[in-house]
């Protein structure tokens, strides 16, 4: 286990984007937890939404006066092959878990759990990867409640994967999911629904100076913002369906031959499929000079792409939540997204973007054409989108709801 380096964060800096009453509530909740020590555990320090959330939540909790640590598992590719299979199974498909895979999972989680040192009053474990630590946590911290935060789309889990994970989840004290539709999919003693959020003050989401935008646009050459740009930003993962986005783009290109497509993503440290999917996508796109498959771009570059694109697409087949949708909406860029996971919670269909069936690439392409052709509609959607995210999907709201759960689990009164 290792502790990632963290940026400094001040909750006072969010007074420009969140109501004063919410900041006051955060301080009240923090006062109730002032003598509590909390540990978050997950499987990667970079490359995914969970890591991004923890990179903001942990230092902000500390700034509020709550003693909060974050530990990341140490594991090899064999372990991550197993946990990717579990992840895929929970989302509806994937290779079955063999006894050898289960043995690998148990050995690695047990080894990592044995490395937890110090005293904690509450442990939050994120997704299935650290669940196997429960025996060690029971030994080391018998009085500390365990909260399981599930970030995965649980719409139609495979029974075998569900059974394996449920063997652990029924032993935690409380579960948190991203949609109410997921609450009854898995056996947990009690559950809460907390929508994930974006941090508006990070490099990926903050406002940028015109000269910064201009410099990043130049670095993205040969992608040109003088012609329409459609962008999808997501990990190279089969569930993100970059191939479906390519089909939607090709359909839209029949009406708009000048349309360009940017498929942008990175590789999460706990996702062994990433490189293979990236290479397949790059091969599929290589014959079209207007398709740009980009990886390992800075957060500033992603910010500019989301800000300067005409339309952003998120055509996932399964999606725990998909915060890249709110990232684009926050930057006043309309989004065409599929009706899966948390995407419909973020897109107000016909006001901030459009929702389409995940398998309907023609409909997705048609929506792109309609938006590209109508500057006034894009601007209107963009203003609606900014306010929609401000009201529902910014970090202080999520932190408030998490701290409310922690006080309830620990029987503290704010």
Automatic annotation (TrEMBL):
Query: What domain of life?
Result: Archaea
Pfam hit, one:
TreT_GT1
* Biological-process GO terms, alphabetical: glucose metabolic process
What does the UniProt keyword field contain? Carbohydrate metabolism, Glucose metabolism, Glycosyltransferase, Transferase
Q: What terms describe the molecular function in GO for this protein?
A: glycosyltransferase activity
Q: Which InterPro entries match?
A: Glyco_trans_1, Trehalose_Metab_GTase, TreT_GT1
Q: Which residues form the Glycosyl transferase family domain?
A: 226-387
Domain named Trehalose synthase N-terminal is located at 40-182
The subunit structure is: Homodimer.
PANTHER family referenced in this protein's UniProt entry, alphabetically: SYNTHASE (CCG-9), PUTATIVE (AFU_ORTHOLOGUE AFUA_3G12100)-RELATED
Which family is it part of? Belongs to the glycosyltransferase group 1 family. Glycosyltransferase 4 subfamily.
Protein name, entry field = Glycosyl transferase family 1
């Amino acid at each position: 286990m290792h502790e990632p380096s963290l940026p400094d964060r001040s909750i006072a800096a969010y007074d420009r984007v969140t109501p004063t009453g919410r900041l006051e509530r955060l301080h009240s909740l923090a006062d109730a937890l002032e003598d509590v020590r909390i540990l978050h555990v997950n499987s990667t320090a970079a490359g995914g939404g969970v890591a991004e959330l923890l990179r903001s939540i942990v230092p902000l909790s500390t700034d509020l006066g709550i003693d909060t640590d974050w530990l990341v598992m140490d594991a090899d590719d064999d372990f991550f092959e197993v946990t990717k299979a579990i992840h895929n199974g929970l989302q509806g498909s994937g290779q079955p878990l063999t006894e050898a895979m289960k043995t690998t999972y148990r050995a690695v989680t047990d080894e990592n759990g044995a490395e937890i040192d110090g005293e904690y009053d509450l442990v939050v474990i994120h997704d299935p990867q650290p669940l196997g630590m429960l025996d060690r946590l029971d030994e080391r911290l018998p009085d500390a409640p365990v909260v399981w935060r599930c970030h995965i789309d649980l719409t139609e889990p495979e029974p075998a994967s569900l059974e394996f994970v449920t063997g652990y989840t029924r032993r935690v004290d409380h579960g948190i999911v991203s949609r109410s539709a997921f609450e009854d999919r898995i056996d947990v003693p009690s559950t809460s629904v907390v929508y994930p959020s974006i941090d508006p003050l990070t490099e990926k989401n903050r406002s940028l100076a015109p000269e910064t935008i201009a410099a990043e646009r130049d670095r993205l050459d040969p992608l040109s913002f003088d012609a329409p740009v459609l962008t999808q930003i997501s990990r190279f993962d089969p569930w993100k369906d970059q191939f479906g986005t390519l089909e939607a783009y090709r359909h839209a290109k029949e009406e708009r031959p000048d349309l360009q497509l940017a498929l942008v993503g990175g590789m999460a440290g706990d996702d062994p499929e990433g490189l293979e999917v990236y290479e397949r996508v790059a091969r599929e796109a290589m014959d079209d000079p207007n398709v740009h498959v980009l990886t390992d771009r800075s957060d500033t570059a992603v910010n500019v792409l989301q800000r300067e694109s005409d339309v952003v697409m998120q055509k996932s087949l399964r999606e725990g939540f998909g915060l890249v949708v709110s990232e684009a909406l926050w930057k006043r860029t309309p989004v065409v997204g599929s009706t899966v996971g948390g995407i419909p919670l973020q897109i107000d269909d016909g006001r901030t973007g459009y929702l389409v069936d995940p398998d309907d690439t023609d409909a997705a392409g048609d929506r792109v054409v309609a938006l590209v052709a109508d500057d006034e509609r894009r601007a209107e959607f963009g203003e609606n989108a900014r306010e929609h995210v401000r009201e529902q999907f910014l970090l202080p709201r999520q932190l408030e709801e998490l701290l409310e759960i922690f006080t309830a689990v620990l029987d503290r009164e704010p």
